[in-house]
Amino acid sequence: MSVLQQNYAEVKRRIAEAEQKAGRQAGEVGLIAVSKTFPSDDIREVYAAGQRDFGENYIQEWYEKTETLADLPDIVWHVIGDVQSNKTKFVAERAHWVHTIGRLKTARRLSEQRPPEMPPLQVCIEVNIAGEEAKHGVAPDEAVALAVEVAKLPNVVVRGLMCVAKADSDDEALRVQFQTMQKLLADLNAAGVRADVLSMGMSGDMPVAVACGATHVRIGSAIFGRREQKGKDGQ
Ligand SMILES: *Cc1c(COP(=O)(O)O)cnc(C)c1O
């Protein structure tokens, strides 16, 4: 096993442990391996160990990877970074999931540009859960209303909600944020949008997210290693 494959096995083990501690079913929490800034060969290694779902933030970088990895037909691409209007076409044509819908306009473009022969694009509404100035996403009290509008679009399907917890939160502060997400998902269902996904939990806060009902965790550095600092937003 390579180092990445060992890291991957360890992350899988930690997720299983968190599931068990939280009284959740084994295998219930999906893992999205966040490969941003890492080369396609690293993705291949983790793919060879069995991983299929990969998350990418930067559309241009991801574009190149979809080309290099075109021979892996069952790879599932999750866009987890901001999608600017001029990038929606490519995302609509190649992504399986977009976790970062914060505006109706973006969702509308994705729906319009989704090729008719493809299944609807699966999307999550990104919630700016701690109301941080520098973060993307919709305010918590606007999330349900946005999701209801997005759910009316023909070629996207609202799967649920996504958040990035505030950095440096202690476990109690994390719980408050993740439990608010759980409540928002219940509100969303009460509003008539059947959605079951909570995309939350990263390398540093995965166990708390799993305890609070995360269905998909997005893990980067614990698998691929430390990222080079690329400035604000990692760009
Ligand atoms: C980078 C990133 C992750 C993974 O973060 P790690 O701390 O490396 O696990 C998850 N979600 C989003 C939105 C990210 O940008």
Automatic annotation (TrEMBL):
Cofactor: pyridoxal 5'-phosphate
Domain Alanine racemase N-terminal: 10-226
Keywords in alphabetical order: Coiled coil, Pyridoxal phosphate
Coiled coil: 1-28
SUPFAM superfamilies: PLP-binding barrel
N6-(pyridoxal phosphate)lysine: residues carrying this PTM: K36
GO molecular function, one term: pyridoxal phosphate binding
InterPro entries with a match to the protein in the record: Ala_racemase_N, PLP-binding_barrel, PyrdxlP_homeostasis
Coiled coil in keyword set: yes
Purpose of the protein: Pyridoxal 5'-phosphate (PLP)-binding protein, which is involved in PLP homeostasis.
Family the UniProt entry places it in: Belongs to the pyridoxal phosphate-binding protein YggS/PROSC family.
Listed name of the protein: Pyridoxal phosphate homeostasis protein
Organism field: Neisseria macacae ATCC 33926
Organism lineage string: Bacteria, Pseudomonadati, Pseudomonadota, Betaproteobacteria, Neisseriales
UniProt gene name: yggS
